[in-house]
Amino acid sequence: MLPGDGLRFGRYAPDPGLADHVDSYWTLDVDRPPATVSVVADGLVDLTFTLGPFAPGEGPGAWVTGPLETSASYRHERPVSLLGASLRPGAALPVLGVSVGSLPAEWSPLSTVVGQVAGELAARIAAQPTVPERLALLDVFLAARLAETTHDGRLRAALRSLDVMRGGMEVGALAATVATSPRHLRRLFRDWVGMSPKRFARIARVQAALRRLSAEPDTGLAGLAAELGFADQAHLTREVRALAGTTPGRLLAASFNPEGHPGI
After folding, report:
1. Count of CB atoms situated within 10 Å of the CB of 224
2. In-domain check, residue 2
3. Same domain, 190 and 89
4. Residue 56 maps to a domain
5. What is the pLDDT of residues 73-86, one digit of tens each?
6. Domain count, the chain
7. How far apart are CA 117 and CA 115, in angstroms?
8. Average pLDDT, stretch 45-54?
9. How distant, in Å, are the alpha carbons of 23, 166, 182 from that of 177?
10. Which site from 11, 95, 197, 216 is most exposed, i.e. has the minimal number of CB atoms within 10 Å?
11. Using an 8 Å Cβ cutoff, are 260 and 68 in contact?
């Protein structure tokens, strides 16, 4: 998420038992609208709960957002308080029970995927007075959903390989590494990750660059481009602009948080 005026963003770790499945929990409070939230493509699926303030006739809501493949911006025209869970690649299918490739990138009611439990969960979360109590409910909900599904070992191995290689692996080589065909690997990624392995590898490589720049702002772009397998510095800059919506230099000047989380 890129910095913005009039909003507060918090990030929280899940229960250690969920760390392989949940990237983070997060809160977003828009105090001084209008405010715009700019988001970097991250390949994550977000569950988001609206906690108020509510207009007459409104109440807590639950939403799901498919993985972003490009940068996005969301404009808030009124105050809002949000709580979200960002699911790691491969975790959303067990939680939601549907192909991740079927999830739209725009906000959709969570109830269309998991039924009335979505509204019940949103109401219970909103009724809790503190963030830790709200996160505890999410821990229980996600752990129960994840326990009911068998995970695909080939997909996990492919995601680990891409993480180690920071996105720098061709689809054919990746498929061979996990003992499957490129065609089947593409099907696995469509259902479990929501995009092609090639697209996900591209996002993973840009995310690796952004994390490095965030941790080490003095890193030279030319050297970083060579290290991560970009053709050159110009290629790195183009990819960051495509997936983050701005250049590496502007991100550094803004002192950004590279983790992407959608806002409403």
Report:
1. 18
2. no
3. no
4. yes
5. 888 899 999 999 99
6. 2
7. 6
8. 95
9. 25, 15, 11
10. 216
11. yes
pLDDT digits (tens, 9 = 90+) for 101-115: 999 989 999 999 999
User: Which one-letter amino acid corresponds to residue 161?
Assistant: S
Task: Judge if 118 and 163 occupy the same domain.
Answer: no
Query: In the 3-class helix/strand/coil scheme, how is the chain assigned residue by residue?
Result: CECCCCEEEEEECCCHHHCCCEEEEEEEEECCCCEEEEECCCCCEEEEEECCCCCCCCCCEEEEECCCCCCEEEEECCCEEEEEEEECCCCHHHHHCCCHHHCCCCCEECHHHHCCHHHHHHHHHHHCCCHHHHHHHHHHHHHHHHHCCCCCHHHHHHHHHHHHCCCCCCHHHHHHHCCCCHHHHHHHHHHHCCCCHHHHHHHHHHHHHHHHHHHCCCCCHHHHHHHHCCCCHHHHHHHHHHHHCCCHHHHHHHCCCCCCCCCC
Please state the pTM of the whole predicted model: 0.89
What pLDDT score does 7 carry? 83
Which residue type, as a one-letter code, is found at position 125?
I
HSE-up of residue 174 (Cα within 13 Å, Cβ side):
30
Are 77 and 39 spatial neighbours (Cβ–Cβ below 8 Å)? no
Interval 213-245: pLDDT, tens: 888 988 999 999 999 999 999 999 999 998 988
Specify the amino acid at residue 43: G
Q: Residue 38's pLDDT band (boundaries 50, 70, 90)?
A: confident
Q: Which amino acid is at 156?
A: R
Is 261's pLDDT higher than 80?
Answer: no
What whole-number distance in Å separates Cα of residue 234 and Cα of residue 201? 19
Residue 87 and residue 114: Cα distance in Å, rounded?
15
